[in-house]
């Protein structure tokens, strides 16, 4: 299994920066639903618990930063996209 981005990586990527959150963070919300494997679910929950935040708030800040992100020369995004594409392909074959 590939390593999960650390807090240091998230700060470097701007994923831990809350200064760019939209003003509607608390007023206009939409549901995001995902079926995760047990390991991925535990990863979100464990990371959130260890850092004193909710998985929902993590999705909020990461989603804001990922909204305009595209593959760059960064060492994390290409690996994340590659792994996500593999999961999508496997799930499409099952469906």
Describe this structure in words.
With 95 residues, this protein is mainly alpha-helical. The two termini are 24 Å apart. 1% of the residues are buried.
Entry summary:
The protein has helices at 7-13, 38-50, 55-66, 77-94. By secondary structure, it is mainly alpha-helical.
Q: Give the H and E element order.
A: HHHH
What ranges have pLDDT less than 50 throughout 5 or more consecutive residues? 1-9
Which class do the helix and strand fractions yield? mainly alpha
Q: Kindly, what is the distance between the CA atoms of the first and last residues, rounded to a whole number of angstroms?
A: 24 Å
Q: How many β-strands, per DSSP?
A: 0
Largest sheet: none
Task: State the helicity in percent bands.
Answer: 40-55%
Coarse shape: globular
**What is the helix tally?**
4
Strand content: under 5%
- Whole-angstrom Rg: 14 Å
Overall pLDDT metric? 74
Keyphrases for this structure?
disordered N terminus, globular, mainly alpha
Fold topology:
Elements: H1 7-13, H2 38-50, H3 55-66, H4 77-94
């Amino acid at each position: 299994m590939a390593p999960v981005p650390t807090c240091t990586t998230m700060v470097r990527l701007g994923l831990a920066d809350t200064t760019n959150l939209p003003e509607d963070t608390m007023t206009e919300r939409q549901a995001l639903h995902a079926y995760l494997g047990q390991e991925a679910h535990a990863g979100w929950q464990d990371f959130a618990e260890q850092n004193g935040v909710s998985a929902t708030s993590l999705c909020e800040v990461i989603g804001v930063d990922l909204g305009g992100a595209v593959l760059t020369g960064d060492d994390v995004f290409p690996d994340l996209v590659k792994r996500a594409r593999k999961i999508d392909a496997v799930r499409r074959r099952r469906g």
